[in-house]
Specification:
mainly alpha; two-stranded antiparallel sheet; 12 helices; two-stranded antiparallel ribbon
Length: about 290
């Protein structure tokens, strides 16, 4: 997505340009406040300003299941888009790893609330509600990661079209930066914490984007088990119930009283480094 389009979306989705729909409980954004050239930009891109849907547990899971038969992506292709996101040539690729993992492992299941949390123990879905999927797509284009069923569906339905058009192939510079990130993780001191590593990563100025983007990159690698955690094993080839991952936070000191540090990235330590055996499963073509 070029800078002109991103600038138009930044104006569209600014908090001062929204109206709250009380009946549905969702924010809507006004195109009439934009310049004609900006509205033309949205039209040429085929961007719908307010793609609103009522999201239910069963419906969103079934929509993800339906994507499992779509042959436009593979672990290798998704891993490439993720590397392009890490390197900065394709920022929206950062979200692809967690979205794809969630999609391929989704299965029919009833909503069963977790014991300690108000969410489905299997998939983490919170409650039926209206969502503006366009606003989520915009955040994904900025490099945000949505570790949810709604986020995965919103991400992949657009990403597949972009992959089909040839977007998301990593450049050599992207692969180099990704490799440097892995080397930084492997060079960590044994007792280095996730927070300490994030500070070191920020100071290095290795990666572009916000602190949230960098956190999303690390969380994505942790969800696949590329970055191991001290609580439970994770891998691309199987699904671990969200309840188990959330319960792990009760065993960690760095998550108590903090809403910003989450498992499984929160369970990493420098001595755990990078699991190279798992790394090659999605990333073998590039590393």
């Amino acid at each position: 997505m070029d800078k002109k389009m991103l600038d138009a979306l930044k104006k569209l989705y600014h908090h001062t340009n929204s109206e709250y729909d009380v009946e549905r409980g969702v924010s809507l954004y006004r195109t009439e406040t934009m310049e004609p050239a900006e509205r033309k930009q949205l039209e040429q891109y085929g961007w719908e300003a307010n793609d609103t849907h009522e999201i239910t547990h069963h419906d969103i899971n079934r929509m993800l299941i339906a994507l499992q038969s779509d042959g436009r992506a593979s672990w290798s292709r998704i891993a490439g888009a993720f590397i392009a996101g890490v390197g900065g040539s394709f920022p929206r690729g950062v979200s692809s790893l967690m979205s794809y993992q969630r999609m391929i492992h989704m299965q029919e299941h009833d909503y069963e609330q977790a014991e300690r949390f108000v969410c489905c123990k299997f998939c983490g879905f919170h409650s039926n509600q209206w969502e503006n999927l366009s606003r989520i797509r915009y955040a994904i284009h900025l490099g945000s990661t949505y570790g949810s069923t709604t986020g995965a569906y919103t991400d992949l339905t657009e990403l597949y079209k972009l992959l089909e058009r040839g977007y998301g192939f990593p450049k050599s510079e992207d692969i180099q930066l990704f490799t440097q990130l892995l080397n930084m993780l492997e060079a960590a001191a044994d007792e280095e914490t996730p927070g300490q590593f994030e500070k070191r990563l920020t100071s290095s100025k290795l990666l572009k984007g916000t602190a949230g983007t960098r956190r999303g990159i690390l969380q994505s690698l942790a969800m696949l088990g590329v970055l191991p955690n001290a609580i439970l094993p994770l891998a691309p080839g199987y699904w671990t119930n969200i309840e188990e991952i959330l319960n792990g936070e009760h065993e960690l000191n760095n998550t108590k009283g903090r809403s910003d540090m989450e498992m499984p990235w929160a369970g990493w330590q420098g001595k755990l480094g990078v699991n190279r055996d798992i790394l090659v499963q999605p990333f073998g073509e590039y590393i």
